[in-house]
Structures are given as C-alpha cells and as structure tokens.
Known about the structure:
By secondary structure, this protein is mainly beta. The chain contains no helices and 14 strands. The strands form three sheets. Strands 1, 2, 5, 8, 11 and 14 form a six-stranded antiparallel beta sheet that branches. A six-stranded antiparallel beta sheet has the order 7-6-10-3-12-13, with no helix packed on it. β6 and β7 form a beta hairpin. It is globular, with a radius of gyration of 15 Å.
Amino acid sequence: LSAASSKYFSITKCGPWGSGEPGDSDVINYETPVYCPFVAPASGAVAGLSINLTSAASGGVNLLCGIYDSENGLPNDLLGYATMDMNVSTGNIRQTSFSSTVTTTRGDLYYVAWTRSTTVPFTLSTVHRNSQAALGPTRDVENNYMALSETGTDNTLPASATEANLLSVDEERPMINLDW
C-alpha cells in the first residue's frame, strides 16, 4: 500500500482485538482511564493520532489519549499522550503534538488509553460494541469485556499503570487511528 493513500492505522479496529464492523458512537462520560491493546503495525515515531468527534462538548474539556508500552501483557509505562480539545466543530480531529515522542516497534504489544480531563461529556465514533473482540482478562464467563479501566486516577493518564487497580470492563472503544 502506498503511504500517501493508506497512512492511517485504525489501532482500535485492527486484529487481534479489533473488528471491521461499522462503527457506533458513544458518549465519553467516565473519569477513569480506559486501555485497549494493539500490536504496532509500524516502527518509528508516531506522527499523529486521529479520532472522530460526533457531538462536541458543551464546555471546556480535553480528550487525553496516550500510548503505553506493556509488561506481562498489561499496560505499563506511558510513552506519551495527545491532548485534544473536545469543545470544537465535529468531525475528524488529528493531533500531531504529544507530551513526548512516542516510538513503537512493529509487532510489539502496546496499549492506547483515553480519558477526559473534566466531567463534561462529548461523543466519539466507536467500534461497534457487539463485534468487539474480548480483551482476554475477564471477571466471568458470560460477559464480553473489551477493555481495561484503572481506578484511583480520575481525569488523567497515569505515568505508569498499576496492575492492582486494573479492572476488565465492557466499554466501547473509540475509533483511534495512528500514523507514523
């Protein structure tokens, strides 16, 4: 594929945890960070992170979206994050500025995490809930837990995820694209 025509990778829809099912939209109205695993499709510094805002916030709030490395299959250290204003016009939003350079290695496991900076809700395009692959870690047999949430760190992305505070959750994943 040409880098010019296919430069974005939909990391929350890619296998093995993703799905090609057409998207939904979901209100981002929770304070705890949510983590979703992905295998890096490229090596190098991440150049941009994109989301689709379907309903803007009514006041000042940012989407904080970060990339974590992994240890023992779980999120570990925050490599860097993007801060994206959600009180703007709806549509695709691409952020090219990160808190620090995020460098990935193709084939390695990472986690993308997101939360909001305040209690003001907004709506993003998401991967359809009924077609999301289960994460792996689970609390029971009958539910499809698609992500991890971390208690004790509201409205911010922690520098390191704390394994004891992680909980498998049934939360729709925003459609998040990365490009290198």
